[in-house]
Amino acid sequence: MIRFEQVTKRYPDGTTAVDGLSFEVAEGELVTLVGPSGCGKTTTMMMVNRLIEPTSGRIFVNGQDIATVDPVRLRRRIGYVIQQVGLFPHRTILDNTATVPTLIGWKKAKARTRAAELLDLVGLDPKTYGSRYPEQLSGGQRQRVGVARALAADPPVLLMDEPFGAVDPVVREQLQDEFLRMQEAVRKTVLLVTHDIEEAVRLGDRIAVYGQGRIEQFDTPGAVLGTP
Ligand code: ADP
Ligand code: ADP
């Protein structure tokens, strides 16, 4: 579903963030990218939705070389969740969640119905929370809205950059549990960046362990931890 072939990213200042990276993620697989700050995880992820362009190498999504796909169209098929989800402050939670479906031309009623389903899926009752505004929600709840919004147009691929990084440990564990339950229901192809090895192990079907600009190990949690 996602394939990197010898991908290198060198920034204009000469920093090589990603160095000859090749890997493959299967459809419906959740791969966590783990490693210290500055080793190239975010760069890897942002090349998948073409917010960053590789210096060399090729990236395929669903068999298509993404260099040949219009970036705006590409991003409609790729959900994106970052640490500080930017919700629109003057739109209700339901309207925030319905943003992408509305943007791509779904009928308003259909977009809202789908948004309500997704809010329900991430553990926010749409009857209670749908009409509220972002400032009326806790950080953890806003993060859930971010996940619901990323999934609303039903993209096959989901990119998540430290999605649970900004909340306290108790809420984080709750969000992780809910996310796993949700992933069982929707089975997206997911790349999830974290610097927390525990989170990587807990969530990943497989784990990509980064060194400087490279993946040093790409295996199941059990194999990465060295247990059978
Ligand atoms: P992360 O939390 O993944 O480590 P950073 O806080 O390092 O992310 O980076 C946040 C943003 O700043 C990203 O858009 C990244 O491209 C940019 N950035 C990171 N390092 C540099 C740098 N040395 N020069 C310019 N921009 C950078
Ligand atoms: P991570 O997500 O693992 O923290 P990044 O992909 O954000 O790592 O960064 C990898 C390397 O590339 C770091 O050395 C960072 O400083 C550098 N970098 C990231 N963005 C930029 C940028 N826009 N310009 C220059 N260097 C950058």
UniProtKB/TrEMBL annotation:
Outline the extent of the ABC transporter domain. Answer: 2-228
Top-rank taxon, per record? Bacteria
GO BP terms in the entry: glycine betaine transport
Spell out the GO cellular component terms annotated for this protein, sorted alphabetically and separated by semicolons: membrane
Q: What is its EC number?
A: 7.6.2.9
**A Gene Ontology molecular function term of the record:** ABC-type quaternary ammonium compound transporting activity
Residue spans making up a coiled coil are none
Q: What class of enzyme is it?
A: translocase
Q: Which UniProt keywords are given for this protein, alphabetically ordered?
A: ATP-binding, CBS domain, Nucleotide-binding, Repeat, Transport
Family as reported in the entry's similarity comment: Belongs to the ABC transporter superfamily.
What's the protein here called?
A: ABC-type quaternary amine transporter
Q: Specify first residue, last residue and whole-protein length for the fragment.
A: 1 to 228 of 394
